[in-house]
Amino acid sequence: MTGPADTAEAGVTSAPASGREESEPALRTSSLRKTYGGTVAVADVDLWVPRGAVVGMLGPNGSGKTTTIRMLLGLTEPSAGSVELLGYRMPDQSGRALPSVGALVEGPGFHPFMSGRRNLLRCAAMEPALYGSDVTTAVRQALERVGLVEAAERKYRSYSLGMKQRLGLAAALLVPRDLVVLDEPTNGLDPAGTREVRRIIAELHASGTTVVVSSHLLSEVEATCTHAAVLQAGSLIAQGELATLLESGGPNLLLRVSDNESGLETLRQSGIPARVERGELRVELSETDAPEVVAALVHAGIGVHEARRNRAGLEEIFARLTEGES
C-alpha cells in the first residue's frame, strides 16, 4: 500500500503477537500469480499492507479477491510469486504466522448438528494460545462480541446466513490477532449486524490490529478503511491510502443556479468545463478555482444560490478505475 518508510505512520498501538519488527509490513506479495489451466485468476499482484492499516480489497465478482486472499493465507498455492505474512514466508512458515492471524474466508464452515457454542469451543481448543479455563472464557467473550449469546445453544444448521457470518467472525476473534482477514464479512447481515461489524473493525484498528476486508460494498469500505486495493480481472489496478485515492478524483464545485442551461453555456464560453448533474452544475476545479467560476456566472447575470466544494466518492473513483477494463 505504502513503502517501508511510511509504515511507521500506521498507528500500531500494541506489540505484535508474532514478535516481528513493527517496521515490516503486515503482508506483502511479489508478482503473485494464480492460473487454472489457461485461465489467469490473479496476475502478478504486488500488494503492500502496512501494519495497523484497515485495507478494503475491492473488485467486482471474478476480480480475483478471494483467490488472492486464499494465497495470502496459504489455502491456495500460488502458480508464481511470493507471499510474506507478518514477516514470514508463506506457505513454508505458515505454522509461525497463522497463530497470529484470524480469518473468515468464503463463509464459515461449522458442524451443522452442533450448537454455535460447541462449534466455537472446538475452534478454541485448536488455538495454541488458549488452554484450560481460558477456552471457556474466550468463547463466551467472542459470543458476546458478535451478539450471539442468546443463540449460542441453538444448532448451527438453524442459523440464518447472518448468524453464520457472526459465528465465523467470533472464531476469527477468539484470541488477540496481529492480522484479521475478512472476506465479505457483512454478507447476509441486516443493517444492525453491519453496524456491529463496522464497530468491531474500528475496535481492531484502535488496538493496532491490521485488518484486510474484502467487500463489494463501497460505502462500507469508505466508512471503515484507511487504505484500499482495487482488483480488476485478476490485476491490482490501484492501491494506497484511501484519502489519497479519493483525492485522485480531483476536487469539483457543485452549484445551484437560477438557470442551468444559461449557466452551462456561460461557463463553456469562459473556457470552464462544466456539466449538469442531478439538477446542479458540476465544475471540475483542476484548471480553475471556485471564485473564478462564481464570478463568471454572476457577471453574466446568473443567480448563484449555492456553491460547495465536493470530493469524488469511492464509487465514482472505483468506476473510473475499472472503466474499460475486462
From TrEMBL:
Keywords from the named record: ATP-binding, Nucleotide-binding, Transport
Positions of the UniProt region annotated as Disordered: 1-31
Domain (ABC transporter) ranges: 27-258
PROSITE patterns, per the entry: ABC_TRANSPORTER_1, ABC_TRANSPORTER_2
Top-level taxon of origin: Bacteria
Cross-referenced InterPro entries: AAA+_ATPase (IPR003593), ABC_transporter-like_ATP-bd (IPR003439), ABC_transporter-like_CS (IPR017871), P-loop_NTPase (IPR027417)
Family: Belongs to the ABC transporter superfamily.
Pfam families: ABC_tran (PF00005)
Protein name: ABC-2 type transport system ATP-binding protein
GO MF term list: ATP binding; ATP hydrolysis activity
High-level lineage: Bacteria, Bacillati, Actinomycetota, Actinomycetes, Actinopolysporales
